[in-house]
Design goal:
The complex is a heterodimer. Chain A is mainly beta. In chain A, 0% of the residues lie in helices and 51% in strands. In chain A, a hairpin with a 3-residue loop joins strand 4 and strand 5. Chain A starts with a strand and ends with a strand. Classes of the chains: A mainly beta, B mainly beta.
């Protein structure tokens, strides 16, 4: 299917484990983003990427690692999961270097760290 | 640093009435975009409306309008003739051109439409 897809949809893991959330888009958008959504905080930017092999920290990057070897993929890795990383994670993309570009969102990954 | 503030955690509105959701922002960018997104209980994020920092007229999209007051750094969303389906979470967002065109969001306002 065309668009932006995230996997898995739901994930339960234990503290200290490594977990990777996947994001794939079929539009060849330049920009990709990872957000986490928590009650009372809205969506907070974790990392973003302007192109393949270009990534940058957002508002809450600690404990997360990203890579972008291909334009269409932007995986997010929690190297050693903590309970505070229990959240809903959204991947998003946008087409160009412009302030008028809206975001296209994936369906989200609900992550629980026990 | 860029910041978006939404001061209304929850709002109630009677069906068919208008409602205003507040959003203030802070940025040092000269060029930026302001957006509103809707998140229904299903969890998907839906783009509603966009306003550019250089746009002189307020943006409108159907029942949605954006009350843009640049000097006050506010970008309030107005929903006219509220419908039950408007019950959702609403997020204000901003995209600047400093630091790589990242988009940041406010904490959101949950809107409840009463029949």
């Amino acid at each position: 299917d065309a668009g932006i897809t995230q996997s898995p949809r739901y994930k339960i893991t234990e503290t200290g484990r490594q977990v990777t959330l996947m994001c794939h888009q079929t539009w060849s958008h330049s920009y990709m983003f990872w957000y986490r959504q928590d009650l009372g905080h809205g969506l907070r930017l974790i990392y973003y990427s302007a192109a393949a092999d270009i990534t940058d920290k957002g508002e809450v990057p600690d404990g997360y690692v990203v890579s972008r070897s291909k334009t269409e993929n932007f995986p997010l890795t929690l190297e050693s999961a903590t309970r505070s990383q229990t959240s809903v994670y959204f991947c998003a993309s946008s087409a160009r270097d412009s302030t008028n570009e809206k975001l296209f969102f994936g369906s989200g990954t609900q992550l629980s760290v026990l | 640093a860029q910041k978006i503030t939404q001061t209304q955690p929850g709002m109630f509105v009677q069906e068919k009435e208008a409602v205003t959701l507040d959003c203030t922002y802070d940025t040092s960018d000269q060029s930026y975009g302001l957006f509103w997104y809707k998140q229904p209980s299903s969890g998907e994020m839906i783009f509603l409306i966009y306003q550019g920092s250089y746009d002189e007229q307020n943006a409108t999209e159907g029942r949605y309008s954006l009350n843009f007051q640049k000097a006050r750094k506010s970008a309030n969303l107005v929903i006219s003739a509220s419908q039950l389906g408007d019950s959702a979470m609403y997020f204000c967002a901003m995209r600047g051109n400093t630091g790589g065109f990242k988009t940041i969001f406010g904490a959101g306002t949950r809107l409840f439409v009463k029949a």
